[in-house]
User: What shape does this take?
Amino acid sequence: LKQFIVVDTQTIIKLSIWVVRVYFSPIWHFVFPTQEFRHSSLLIRHSTAQIIMSSRGGEGDEGHLLIEEDMGDVLSPEEISDLITKYSGHEIVKNVLECASLEELNEKASIANDRLHKLENESIKQHAKECDNLVLLQEKIHDCDETLAHIENVLSNFQTSLGKISGEISNLQSSSSHVTQRLLECKETELALGEYVEQLTISPDLIAKVLSTEVGDGTEYIQVCKALSEKLIFKRDVKRRGGQDATYAAFTDIESELERLRIKAIQKVRDFFIQKFHSLRKPKTNIQLLQTNVLKKYKPLVDFLQVHGADIFREIRALYVETMGKVLKTALQNYISALSVLKLESGSTSKNKTGQYIGDVDASASSSSATLLSASTSANSASGGGGGGSGSHFLSSLGQGSGIAGSIPTTNDGRSAHTNFSLGKRANILANIETAAPIIAHSISGSKLPWEALFRSSQKLLVDMATFEYLFCIDFWKGDSQIFRDVFAQPLQAMDEYVQSCINTNFDAIGLALAILINRGHQKLMQRRRIPSLDLHLDKVNIMLWPKFKMVFDAHIKSVVSACENAKNQTKLFVDDVSAHYVTRRYAEFTASMTVLSKLEGGDNQLRNNLERLRKAQYDLLVKLAERFTTPKRRSCFLLNNYDLIHQILSTDENLEHELGFFDEQLIIETDAFVQIELETHFGDALLQIESLEFGKSSPDVAVEQSIQILKAFSEQWKQQITKINSEIVSLFSNYNRGMDILQRTLSSLLVKYTDACEKTSASGEEAKKTVDAIRVTNAAFLFECKRYARAK
Assistant: This one.
């Protein structure tokens, strides 16, 4: 019974599951498209029979229920249990599982089986109804399969054809590259061969132009020579390489013809240049214009000669060097000769060497007191200036003007009015050394110019000539700077001779210093132009100028030292006149000029040391000359006038403070000495005696009486003595300002001494004080007299 119950229970479960499968077969198959449900519709007819047979006693199944399907699927109890668990919530499954008896289950199974048969019949009818359509569909599918197979075959054939075409294209590309390469090689060969053939042929037109065209007919012959040069160079290269080219009949045919044309062209070019170079020798020829407008156009012909006619090129070059050397030398010499007419004959270059150095005796000055100072003294007296004149005498125009010193006036005997010691307007020449043009001699005929102006003009002409010629040679002769040196050898020789001759006869230190600065300016000019052609010449001129300048400067110092140490020379120089000596003016102007030029030069320690030596010698000379005066007053007055002149000249420029300081100190010392001498001369030592008297030593007091007598005498004579002092000072000092300064100092010192004397006397007692007050000159009266003389100026 237990076994039956188990089997029957399993059968019910299995049946319920299959009922569920049959009932929901369309939905089940759609939702669960697994392998175990794909054939459920085909197994419906056998399911029940198999279940019943299995439940009736199949032997050996050991209580297991087996459900076999047409596809051979087998469901184990575990799988069935899983399926029941999985779909236990479904309504049909739930109804089957809720069946209480086998009959109810069979009834439901019968109902399900009927429905299944019905559905199966309906399905068969539907399939039968659609049978024709399915056949037609099958035929169409078959036709489509055949069409697709045909298309596949066509595409396969097309793919094969495309593969063949791709291969052919690759072959064509390879062939095209090969053909292109061959074409390029053919073109290169054609080009080289064409050039070669072109060089192997000489056109009749080229031959006719070489033989008949004139060189001077524009630039046509230049193009002819250029074409001929290419063929000549080709011939030379072929012969140089050797090989079969040189043995070709075509080459040997043109070789002789090319040589004949070369000789003819060289001959015509040679004759042309000879004719042009000879035209440079004609008088009044504008050489630079001819070089620029004519010769430069035919520069390629020079290249042609240099390459194809070396001997003729050297001949033409030598002819140019000779021609231009002579032309430039002659032009420079003529210009120098024209300038020599304008040369100013000064003491430094004339045969009469008297007075060319600071310490030399000036014969014209020795016969009269201050001959050289008379003009400036009168001018300064009218203007309130000093005997030495103002600084404008030699420095006022420095750095101004046209750069060429203006004409310098001369005296009646033809000598220059300027000296070798003052710079004056000669400094104008330094204003624009680089831009000022050379002097045109005939345009300023009748005027006289100092040597440095002529030197600057001739040197500037040389610099401009050298600049133009150097640039022309570099351009025309293809950078050959040696040809310039060959051309300018003669002009430079002429210029060196001129400079040397001028230096040998020149003892003007200022002119030599100016020439040094001018030469340096020309060196800077050539550096800015980047023309090195005259470096050696300008250095040589500098070497010639400096030793001469130092020699002349030393001669100035030596002349002053010699005058100081030699009593005979002092006698010649001495003039019994307290006015400033002409040697002092020479020294002051020379020192000022050299200091200013030294600053322009950039400062020279050696020159500064020489100026200190010259200053010491000048001071010693003035002291020695002052000792020759018979009275201390005249000695002091002489020194004051000389120191004052130096002060006036050196105080015009701040660069002269170093030299000015020494003589200013001496001027103060000598002024105090002169004041003391002047007071002693007109008032004696009476006022000083009052200071030495001892009051109260005796009774009655003799010292007080003496002091009062001195003060009474002073009160009676002081105005007359002051007038005399004023007259003497005005007559002794050429510089009125300096005289008034000394007068004020003298009166101030007198007032101080007089006031001290009165105070000392008044301090001796009341009686003495009353007496002094009665006779005393008031300060107001004293100051009134001082101001009166000051206003008299």
The first helix runs from residue 2 to 23.
